[in-house]
């Protein structure tokens, strides 16, 4: 077994916490960074900058440096809210250029088997936004997974009694896929072909 210095071992451990990074990738990344101290310094500084400056928007719960975020403070359709699971899903929707409304990030999906309940998500905050009476449509853009579908159904049951139109992305997106990995054209077709729930 190879023994590394304490600091390198710690770096490897931290890198392996990233999604999709195992032992080999962590080692490759660590040695790449060590070859170029300037890159290592720049990475460390950018991580500290993100930690200090990036937060969640108090309106949509997307990622921002300004509060409210750019999408919440610009002139977009204020009558439509697109509900997504994670902040990166906003990027997928924006790449399509098909959606012109506002967003709401749940920060997950319902998953009773994993202990994720409505109280763990930003559902209460969504319902509070809907109380204003200005919202005419909620587009549910949760992932097409069991958890995403369960979340969409749960939200539909909460929102329908408010006489707000509830729509879902069209099912042109493959079942079991995550929205953040879908190409812009497919997302655009899905937004244009959304259907009432």
CATH classification class of the largest domain: Alpha Beta
C-alpha-based Rg, rounded: 20 Å
Count of individual helical segments? 8
In round numbers, the mean pLDDT is 92
Shape: elongated
Order of helices and strands: HHHEEHEHEHEHEHE
Number of beta strands: 7
At the third CATH level, what is the topology name of the largest domain?
Answer: Dna Topoisomerase Vi A Subunit, Chain: A, domain 2
How would a crystallographer describe the biggest sheet? 5 strands, mixed
Portion of residues in beta strands equals 5-15%
Gap between N and C termini: 57 Å
The neighbouring-strand order within the major sheet is 4-3-5-6-7
CATH architecture of the largest domain: 3-Layer(aba) Sandwich
